[in-house]
Structures are given as C-alpha cells and as structure tokens.
Amino acid sequence: MKELKVRVIGGGLAGCEAAWQLANRGIKVDLYEMRPQVMTPAHTTSNLAELVCSNSLRSDRLENAVGLLKEEMRRLNSLIIKAADLNRVPAGGALAVDRDSFSRYITDTVGNHPNIQVHYQEIKEIPDSGYTIVATGPLSSSGISGAIAQLMKEEYLYFYDAAAPIVTLESLDKGKVFKASRYGRGDDYLNCPMNKEEYARFWNELVNAEVVTLRDFENRVFEGCMPVEVMAKRGMDTLRFGPMKPVGLVDPRTGEEPYAVVQLRQDNHEATLYNLVGFQTNLKFGEQRRVFSLIPGLENADFIRYGVMHRNTFINSPRLLDSFYRMRENNRIYFAGQITGVEGYVESASSGLVAGYHLAGTLHGEQIAQFPSTTAIGALARYISNPTIGDFQPMNVNFGIMEPLGKRVRNKQQRNRSIAERALKDIENFIHPE
Ligand SMILES: Cc1cc2nc3c(=O)[nH]c(=O)nc-3n(C[C@H](O)[C@H](O)[C@H](O)COP(=O)(O)OP(=O)(O)OC[C@H]3O[C@@H](n4cnc5c(N)ncnc54)[C@H](O)[C@@H]3O)c2cc1C
User: Fold this and answer.
1) Mind listing the pLDDT tens digit for each residue in 225-268?
2) I need a labelling partner for 350 at 20 to 30 A (CA). Which of 59, 168, 233, 428 fits?
C-alpha cells in the first residue's frame, strides 16, 4: 500500500495540532518549522507552539464561547488543549499555562511521535504535488508569503489587521439607535446620535484612554492607517468631520441632524453583528469597553470583538477556503491557524484540528461530514468560509456566529449555557455517529 504522507508548514499552535490529528490517524507527517534558523519578530525560543504574548487561553467556562470551543476540542483529543490542561497555572475562570512547560510538552510530544518527523528549516515554496497544510501564522516569513501570494491572486493576501470593534444587535438600546443611510439613501446603517455634551464627554475620555504599546515591527505597518484615538487627538472636531460626521443623517426622534454620529455597519449575513465604522483602534480592551459604552445606544453593548491593529498575515478565506479550511480550487492544499483569519491561540488550534481531522479522513477514503454549525468548531469554520462575507476581518469565536437557539431565552448566561449543552451533544454525535 502507498504510504500516506502530509507536509505541514509551520510548527505553531495550528501546525502542531494538525500534525497530531493526522499522525494519530496513521498518516505520516513532515512538519517544517523555521525557528531557530529564522526567527519571527515575536517568537523568542526554538520551541514548537510558542505562545507569543499572553499565557492565557482565555475563559474555561462553558457560558463563554472560547470555553465551549476548548471543551469541544478536548473531546476530539486536541494536543494543544491537553498540553494546556497539563501545564495549567491558577487564573480564576481562565485556562492559563506555564508557557515554557506548555510549549516544551508539545515539542516533546510531537517530536517523539512515531508518525511525525520534524524538520527545522524555512519553507519558501508550496510544492505542487502531495498534500500540504500551510500554518505559518500571522508572522509568516517573507519567503512563504510570496509563495502564498502567488498561489492565490495577490489581492487575497493581507499583511495587517486594522479592525474596528463588533457588537451584537441584541445588546443595543433600540430606543436610541436609528436606522438610516446618509441623505435618505436607504436604511443600511444603525446610527448612534450624540448631542454636544455627549460628544464632548466621549472625546475627552477617548483622547485620555490607555492604549496598547505596539512593538517596533507593528508600528511600522500602520503609518497609513489611523486609529480613531489618534485622529481624535488632532483636534476636538476632527472626528465630527471624519468617521463621526452627522451630515445627511436625521434622527427621527428629534427631526434634526445630531451633533455627531457613530455609524454601525452590518457585519454578518444574519444581521446579528455590527461593527463601529471607522473605529479601528489601539485602545486596551478594557478601555474600549469603558469609552465606547459612552456612545448612546451602546451603554450595555456586548463586544464580541474588540478593535485591533497589528501585523497579521491572513488570506481572504471566504473567497478561498471551504469549511474544512481546504482551498476550493486545489483540494491538496489546506490552510490552518491565524493565517486563515481565525483570531487567537485556541481558534488557531481549532482550525488545525479541523484541517488535520478532515485530511486524515479523506486520505483514508472516508466521507467526512462538516462539523455541525451548532458547535463552536463548526461555526468558526463556516464563518471563515462564508462567501457572503464582504469585508473580511479576523474573528474570535463567539456565540454571535453560532446557530441561534430555536427558542427565546432572555437570560444571557442561561442562553449561552443552553447553546453550549446543545453543542456538546452535537459534537458527541459527530464523533460517535449512531
Ligand atoms: C504579536 C502577537 C501577539 C499575539 N498575542 C496573542 C494573545 O495574547 N492571545 C491570543 O489568543 N492570540 C494572540 N495572537 C494571535 C494568534 O493567536 C497567535 O499568533 C497564534 O500563535 C497563532 O497560531 P498559528 O499556529 O496560526 O501561528 P504561530 O503560532 O505563529 O505558528 C506559526 C509558525 O510557523 C513558523 N513559520 C513561519 N513561516 C515559516 C516558514 N516559511 N517555514 C517554516 N515555518 C514557518 C513560525 O516560526 C511559527 O512557529 C498574537 C499574535 C501576534 C502576532
């Protein structure tokens, strides 16, 4: 019988998870990692699956979507979650790890797996034969970035993330927010009107809010793209002539143009999520919640993604990938990790899990079903590959992208728990079909 073999490029969270899923299903894997020969601007060790920043894999509670995602992955024998569970440090309701022992455990486990051969070398080309999973991360080397750009027309590869926060529709105060497009041309936007006092207070908090300190390599990328707080610092009225201009928008409650307006644009097909137009920002997450909650209508907003601006190589997955993270136009090539536009350590590992799981099944001649859209793993994979998404920006897992419950549950905690219970039942049925 011909030996089944897969090449995985990138030994980060996604690449190691994909290799592990393949190897445990009897597929031989060549895993390529360029460090320590070639380092990225953020990694500092030669360990596989190094955590480049925080040592937290975020909430471990099922009422939180990332907690649910982890539990689903646990049930699918995820290496990354197993390593995290074994190397846990106390962090309240979060799953935080000792970063060194976490990545050393993964380096040893992957390195000692009889089906995995680790090669410490940079790959600059995507071979046109055999099966490949590209998992080179947000800081992919320039060599492989060139090869990826060549593979998919250049316009589908992006090098930084300048995303505005996203809120859920149901958390908005509908008594304050009004629907309208500028100059009466439809009602595509939700508008949060401000009077002069509200604007002055908001501006003052915005210009004095705490921002994230960017590293040198991140600063350089953003010369041409201005965060909302930087624009605000240019003068008290700059935003009123920029993203917060009220021209052509009449508040039906007053019959007049407000003093300033924050516009919200629909972000997903189901119209459950909205982004704050022009609000790309470097404010710390807590500060975003505090300051943006001063916007009328957003007092109790549920932020499912905060604004970010950092170096991030990612592809336009909705145009390129299917829900197995496989290229639609070339079924030998999969992508996994942050490069697909999933955002976060756990999300990256989750996409590696799906890609490895699916490719292993395919190589064994099995028919692998899509992960159910009621599960966090499945919802994320479908979001990333949903061709109706226009302006694609990286996404964390969240309940807003999961299939809603068929019934209305008012209490948010209870609703999230019901979604999680349904997801775990469905993932069990997926793993062990009748
Ligand atoms: C500066 C920064 C901070 C972040 N902080 C957080 C955080 O605190 N929490 C969070 O949840 N997420 C964070 N992220 C986002 C993201 O979750 C992580 O980057 C995560 O590591 C992504 O997993 P990955 O497997 O896709 O990529 P990585 O873990 O980066 O793995 C990719 C691997 O591919 C290797 N590689 C690259 N090019 C090549 C090549 N040509 N040949 C061979 N190997 C190659 C790299 O050396 C690396 O080991 C951060 C991202 C960045 C850039």
Assistant:
1) 688 999 999 999 999 999 999 999 999 999 999 999 999 988 88
2) 168
